[in-house]
């Protein structure tokens, strides 16, 4: 039986965001035949996301923004909680906890910006819309900077956990690319080069979906640390034997490329006790061979 885990939150957020973007884009191209909206500039031929979102699809735009940010913020909170509980590589210093908290704070700022810009659309509230657009992009970029810093420190503490380095590089790439594109977008907007600015806006939005999906990489290892349900009396021994007989049992307990709670054997043959799931006193509650 497949049981849902924390990694579902970023998947849901990414799917909803992609569906919203594709719905808006295809509606403008196919249904509206690239119509020129009132909110577009006189010489503009490519609609902004907000131009389409201010049309008949405004309810879809608002719903998509709300659901995306709710699931994404749940991903941030889940990462913080799982590390606090030791089900992911736990924090080793107060600095990492502060960075995680700042990540969530600025993600909330980005959340507020995205939801409000969808409500105060560019056609009816252009000035407020632009303010909330800055909050959205700035909030999530700053949040990504803090989480990169956090993961860089965690990667140094847990060098054996390659997934931390992978996640760090994914998020660092997002930060660098989005900053460059955001600067180009602002420059095109201020110089009234609306078509290049619109293309850049759609590009920034689609790249944001890749950032959202990247949290799957962070949360997936926690599926191996779900507490196991207690077997009925008299069946525990038989079920444990069956579990140990399954192919790949030895690897089932590994998470984030770390060690396990089992006793390790040194090259000389002498047993060496492992210091928990992460070698740093993790409060691991149990292993799961499926989820």
From TrEMBL:
Membrane topology: Multi-pass membrane protein
Domain called CWH43-like N-terminal: residue spans: 6-221
Superkingdom of the source species: Eukaryota
Keywords: Membrane, Transmembrane, Transmembrane helix
GO cellular component: endomembrane system; plasma membrane
Region (Disordered): 228-291
Positions with biased composition (Low complexity): 266-275
Record carries keyword Membrane: yes
Compartments it resides in: Endomembrane system
Membrane-spanning ranges: 7-30, 60-78, 98-120, 132-151, 163-187, 199-219
Main subcellular location: membrane
InterPro entries xrefs: CWH43_N, DRAM/TMEM150_Autophagy_Mod
Keyword Cytoplasm: no
Name of this protein: CWH43-like N-terminal domain-containing protein
Species of the source: Trichocladium antarcticum
């Amino acid at each position: 039986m497949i049981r849902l885990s924390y990694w579902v939150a970023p998947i849901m957020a990414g799917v909803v965001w992609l569906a919203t973007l594709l719905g808006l884009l295809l509606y403008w191209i196919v249904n509206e035949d690239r119509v020129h909206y009132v909110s577009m500039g006189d010489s503009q031929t490519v609609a902004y996301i907000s131009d389409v979102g201010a049309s008949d699809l405004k309810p879809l735009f608002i719903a998509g923004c709300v659901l995306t940010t709710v699931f994404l913020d749940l991903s941030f909170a889940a990462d913080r909680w799982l590390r606090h509980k030791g089900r992911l590589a736990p924090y080793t210093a107060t600095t990492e906890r502060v960075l995680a908290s700042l990540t969530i704070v600025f993600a909330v700022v980005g959340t507020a910006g995205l939801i409000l810009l969808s409500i105060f659309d560019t056609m009816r509230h252009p000035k407020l819309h632009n303010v909330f657009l800055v909050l959205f992009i700035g909030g999530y970029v700053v949040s990504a900077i803090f989480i990169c810093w956090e993961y860089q420190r965690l990667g140094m503490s847990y060098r054996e956990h390659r997934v931390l380095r992978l996640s760090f590089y994914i998020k660092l790439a997002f930060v660098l690319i989005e900053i460059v594109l955001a600067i180009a977008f602002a420059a095109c907007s201020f110089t009234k080069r609306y078509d290049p600015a619109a293309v850049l806006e759609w590009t920034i939005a689609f790249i944001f979906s890749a950032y959202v999906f990247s949290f799957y990489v962070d949360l997936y290892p926690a599926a191996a640390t779900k507490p196991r349900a207690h077997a009925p009396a008299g069946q525990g021994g038989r079920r444990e034997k069956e579990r140990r007989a399954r192919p790949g049992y030895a690897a089932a307990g590994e998470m984030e490329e770390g060690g396990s709670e089992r006793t390790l054997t040194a090259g000389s043959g002498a047993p060496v006790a492992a210091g928990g799931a992460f070698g740093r006193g993790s409060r691991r509650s149990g292993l799961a061979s499926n989820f």
